[in-house]
């Protein structure tokens, strides 16, 4: 359930963009009629309609994510709060200014923020956030936790640069595919690599699932 909730905004963004991109005239007319008041000039053109509608959907989905967790009295992770701020600010600019530039910068801003938070938290808060999130599930040496934290910092910094490099190198439709499938695949590969690294450093009782005789 949590995995679906985490990926819901991304899924809805992709589905909305693909449908609107294949029906641009209808999408532009719908966006102008129902959301023209959010757009500078009040009219949405054929070219920007897919991005505008998918941006509105991802803003609404992220807001609903936070609201759902709040209603259920569950913790809203810091990264979700950062994502909400990014998508509302940059998504709002995308809608108002008819420009996909801002929403393309959203993943880069988000990943850069994650890298900064993870990188600075040991210095400013005296806390390794990766350890804080999953440390109660794994018994690992301090040096391993530090390495994992650095690896996530490097990964997010790399993704921040890669996203904007792709965004400025290809058309919007191709960037959407990269955002949904490329970034997700890279994240999966990175997490598998982390899994192998963690496995190598687990104590015998965690590695085997039970204490050795």
From TrEMBL:
Reported function: Plays a role in cell envelope biogenesis, maintenance of cell envelope integrity and membrane homeostasis.
Signal peptide: none
Protein's membrane topology: Multi-pass membrane protein
Family the UniProt entry places it in: Belongs to the YciB family.
InterPro entries: YciB
Keywords assigned: Cell inner membrane, Cell membrane, Membrane, Transmembrane, Transmembrane helix
HAMAP family linked: YciB
Entry's Gene Ontology cellular component terms: plasma membrane
Bilayer-crossing regions: 44-66, 78-97, 109-130, 151-170, 176-198
Chief subcellular location: membrane
Native organism: Vitreoscilla filiformis
Compartments, record wording: Cell inner membrane
PANTHER family: INNER MEMBRANE-SPANNING PROTEIN YCIB, INTRACELLULAR SEPTATION PROTEIN A-RELATED
Name of protein: Inner membrane-spanning protein YciB
